[in-house]
Sequence to fold (552 residues):
Amino acid sequence: MWAGAFSFLVLSLSGQTPVHTLPSPDFADLVARADWHEQHTGKTMQGTVIDANVDFFEFASPSDLPNGGREWRMAVAVPGAPALCVYFETFHLPVGASLSLRTPEGAFDQPFTEGPIDHTENNAHGRWVSGEIPGEVVELVYRQPAGVVGQPSMQIFGVGCFFRYLWLDGDYDVLGESGGRGSDPCQVDVNCPEGADWLCQRNAAVRLRVTQNGGIFLCSGSMVNNTARDCRQLMLSSFHCVDDVEEDEWSLLKVRYNYEYLECGGTASINSHDRTGVIYLTGSQDVTANSINGSDFLFVEVEDPIPSSWDVYYAGWDATGIPATSGVGIHHPSGDRKKISTYTNNLSNSSVYHPGAHWRVTWVATETNHGVTEGGSSGSALFNQDKRIVGTLTGGSSFCTALNSPDYYGKLSYHWDGNNPISEDEKLKYFLDPANTGEEILDGSLVGDGDLPCDGTTVCGIVEVEEEILATAGFQLFPNPVAAGGLASVRIALPGDMPLKEVRIYDAQGRLVDALLPNASGSLVRTWTPGVHFVTIETQAGVTATRKLLVR
Fold:
């Protein structure tokens, strides 16, 4: 069924680029395994890891660079694969060196590139994994300029082969709607009107890619605040998403931020970011024989620093156990861009998994459609009317074909101090209230430039005001289209008096091509290359908005 559908092996790889070809998996078996997991474990399987044992520098072909540096190239291939990722151990890049992963020339109209990756991805454990690269061949290029000090190391121990739930824009959309690509059609993008009142909270939601027991799985999670108000990089999800994760696999968990469409019902997304690796802190430890015997929570810390420019929100929470009267769920169904589902009736107690450990929720139709949940939504947050987290998704029976069927969220109040099969000091309250203040309600915070405390309801308020203005009035680019060629001026017309921090320009593949500020007249003056561009403005308060610019 799959062989030949994604045949990119006959490509113009350089004759000096050695290719390490791994055996293709049985795709029909992968589909069967994924179906089994959906039915029995609640996990959403996206791919499998194929064992490899390749020392990059022993296998790759070196060459001299014109400036006196050196370059090494190799490729990995899995015939018939829709997309791949590469797993490394003993991963170390000297300061000044870089690694890029890309599709070969000819695979797509424009090569897809991840990177350059630099020394900031180094960790003491020496493990790192790439994002999803479309096609059955990935070319790896390591560059070390002259004068770089230090010895690089990269051992490839596995190659991930994806077979469904791939969300790659434009030409890179190798599956399409007919190939297991998508979330269901009733889902509601967070940039639709339903998300207008949740502008901060949606920036807490993250997509998780979990590697465990030879498989690759999808879930959702949320960044959360704590009573120390120190912006510690804490994340809440569901334990059943990771119950097979081995100790050395936490370093391979991929957390994706800002993963959403630019507009309601859109087809393009940019500005998403990844962090690789988390530190396990605590969890409910309540999965036994594929049964959940508690509230099903996971609590981890994201390993590497999160830049303030990503506008990550640390969500507030309510551990009182008082049923919410209304609210939303924000999630990544089937690994898709961020969606929002709405409820307007009081939450009710449920013992569907464990006595008193879950909230029961049913979703309602809204202006755009009727959001529900899917595989991949597991671990996502349920917010109450006060915009605080009150639960995390375990499972349920809502579908686009069963709109009024319920879903079940592990209660944050049960995570807090309930009867999960863990010790007293492993309960969530010891991590979210580290100073033992006794607080059971906490607001969230959006941190701006790193100089602001993590207690920023005021900061969030500023952001919400500016986001609202930009969401309703937007900003304009004149002229649009603009002429390619020599220097040309594009004027940014902003509503209100919003001081800009930066303007970023991306190409059609979402790659940053320029970062600058407008001149005194509010114009961007530069040489524009033909094609589709995206112009992202960032205000001093940290609010971002994006518009498409055509260059002809």
